Amino acid sequence: MVDSLREWQLALPYTLPLLTSALLAIVIALTVWRRRTVPGAAPLMILSIAAAEWSFAYALEIAATPAAAAIFWARLQYLGIMTLPVAWILFALEYANLHHRLTRRALALLLAIPVLTQIAVWTNDYHGLIWPQIRLGTVGSFAILNFSHGPAFWICNIYSHLCLAFGAFLLLRRFFGAPRLYLRQVAVFVAGAAAPWLGNGLYVLKLTPWPGLDLSPFGFTFTAAAIAFGGLRLRFLDVVPVARDVVLESMNEGVIVLDDQGRIIDTNRASQRLLGSSAADMIGKPIRQVLERWPQLLDRYRGIVQPGEEIAIEIDGKPYVLNVNVSPLYDRNGRVLGRLIVWHDITALKQTEEALRQRNEELIALQQTLLLAKEEAESANRAKSAFIANMSHELRTPLSAIIGYTDLIKFDQDRRGQAIYAEELRAIRSSGHHLLALINNILDLSQIGANKMQLQNELFSIEALVHDVVTAVRPLIEHNHNTLTIECAFDDDLMFGDRLKLRQVLLNLMSNAAKFTESGAINLRVWSEPASDRALPACDAQYVVFAVSDTGIGIAPEHLSLLFKEFSQVDGSARRKYGGSGLGLAISRHFCRLMGGDVIVASVAGQGSTFTARLPADVRRVSDGSAAPMGAAIDPVQVP
Ligand code: ADP
User: Fold this and answer.
1) Alpha-carbon radius of gyration of the chain
2) Is the pLDDT of residue 243 over 70?
3) Distance separating alpha carbons of residues 524 and 548, to the nearest angstrom
4) Which residue, judged by its Cα, is nearest atom 14 of ligand 1?
5) 582 CA closest ligand 1 atom index
6) Looking at the predicted structure, is the pLDDT value of residue 368 above 50?
7) Is the pLDDT of residue 584 over 80?
């Protein structure tokens, strides 16, 4: 009992540092536990606990008597010894953002040697692969176990060193790639990584104040302390460089972080691109120096800029508009640590805005021009309509006198039985009537153009109207040696609409047929049909259809679309031969549409034509008089 107490006291210089190391490692593990959600915390905790376990078991091994107890503690150390390299690798992987690459298989491989080592350690008595011999020796003035080392020991030893080296390599790689803001933290890490090597090296070279004592557990405790310091004091674990890279480097916004002296301590790629400088050119330099080419930017960064302030600058002769925000960075005590400058390149947005503004102005100007032009056109149209109306009146009065006096002279001559100038008088009369028709057509057209054409609706007999038209047109039909047939098949003889306009339409169609047919046949067919038969929208209204067919010269397909246009005579030679103004069909279509119907044509050149006018039997039944456009709905060939 006295002996063992003395042993304890003698071992104290060895056990005390080891127990202190264990305690420190436990404190670190607890501290990290409080921040266990940050990246890298879990492996760091495991690392600290393993270092604590190793230190603690090592201390007890030194202090223990008898030898069997010391061997037990020596075995127990291997739990910590073999956990450390694994935890170290896991930490380094997480820190380097490579932990997602660690597959289950890789983890199993990583754990294989530590697990086998545990087995080998506890079964050493049977094979001696770890310790072939264990002898009692002395260190200083107290007894200690001396272990000789077998192949399994060397395997796990090499394995541990490889793991340490690989982890250190990952950290070093990070060190060279890290922005300067994080260099201090990474440097602390690398120092932490070097500690176990140093401890082991001093032990091997016997350069320690405790000969025979392996300093590796101190090394690992130091590693854990360094990492925890890097993480907690330098806030490393809060903003791991990985997170910084992911956030800052992927941003479209330029970011510059300044320290309290106005020196750049971090910048991202967007900033470097815009300013055309590399990170190495910018970091560590005063912002004043980096931005000296853009004094206006410099002016702004001095004061705290309101959020979203826009600044126009020129970079290499190219204009840019930047949206700049500068905000102060404070520490926990409210002291200004530096400034954060965030800018967003809104040049394209501004250019689009400017282009839109210009386009808008152009559009407004164009709209005004169009409005003016419209007003001018309307006023010109009004003047034209007034002029045509006046002129028509002025022309019609003397023309009526000419026709009247011609009739009078003819009548007088007939009475006296004289035939002198009979032919000339007939020519004057015919020309007068032609001129009168022309003037009337132009007047109609001007009224249509001015939307002044009114319907004079009345109830009338279709048969009487047909008779009237045929009587009027018969001389012309006979003049060209044509025959006329009429077929009427309507349910109701009465129609309500503008009789005079319908008469004008039919006269035009019939006289055209007579004019463009020689020694042929002209046929007028009239029938009624319900609107629903034609699937027209005008509900149950009845329609009366007038189809005028001839066997005349016909119209070429390419001319059909011109027929109903004002002043269009489809064939120049026909005009010379047949006369006419090219207004009749245009007016006829206007009239038909005004009355809620339409007129269409079907024709084969050289064989004849059919013009079909289709009108509501009662103009009041179709809502606004335009409800029944016919278009191509009527096929004149299908006349019953
Ligand atoms: P115009 O007073 O010249 O006859 P229209 O508008 O009535 O004016 O006719 C326009 C043109 O349509 C005519 O010049 C003619 O070429 C053609 N046309 C009209 N009806 C017929 C028809 N039945 N047969 C052949 N061509 C016709």
Assistant:
1) 56
2) no
3) 5
4) 569
5) 8
6) yes
7) yes
Q: Order the strands of the 608-616 sheet from edge to edge.
A: 483-489, 521-530, 542-550, 608-616, 598-604
**DSSP of 329-349, one letter per residue?**
EE-TTS-EEEEEEEEEE-HHH
CB-side exposure of 194: number of CA atoms within 13 Å? 7
Other CB atoms within 10 Å distance of the CB of residue 106: 12
Are the CB atoms for 156 and 84 separated by under 8 Å? no
* Residue closest by Cα to atom 9 of ligand 1: 582
Residue 563 alpha carbon to ligand 1 centre in Å: 7
Cα(426) to ligand 1 centroid in Å equals 25
Pair type for strands 483-489 and 521-530: parallel
- For 158-173, what is each residue's pLDDT tens digit? 999 899 889 888 877 7
- Atom 23 in ligand 1: residue holding the nearest Cα: 513
Q: Which residues line ligand 1 (CB under 6 A)?
A: 508, 512-513, 516, 550, 552-555, 563, 569-571, 574, 580-586, 609
Average pLDDT over residues 385-408: 87
What's the gap between Cα 233 and its chain centre?
A: 46
Residue 339's φ and ψ, nearest 5 degrees, are -135, 150
Residue of the CA atom closest to atom 18 of ligand 1: 512
Distance 567 CA to ligand 1 centre (A): 10
What does the mean pLDDT of the chain come to? Answer: 82
Whole-number Å distance between alpha carbons of 76 and 55: 11
237 — phi, psi (to 5°)? Answer: -70, -20
568 Cα–ligand 1 center, Å? 9
pLDDT digits (tens, 9 = 90+) for 76-95: 999 999 999 999 999 888 87
- Written as one letter, the residue type at 324 is V
* Band (304; pLDDT cuts 50, 70, 90): low
Strands 318-330 and 458-461: unpaired
Ligand 1, atom nearest to 568 Cα? 10
Six-digit token pair at 638?
């299908």
What order do you get walking across the sheet with 318-330 strand by strand? 264-267, 254-259, 336-345, 318-330, 309-315
Report how far ligand 1's centroid is from the alpha carbon of 237 (Å): 95
The residue nearest atom 11 of ligand 1, judged by CA position, is 569
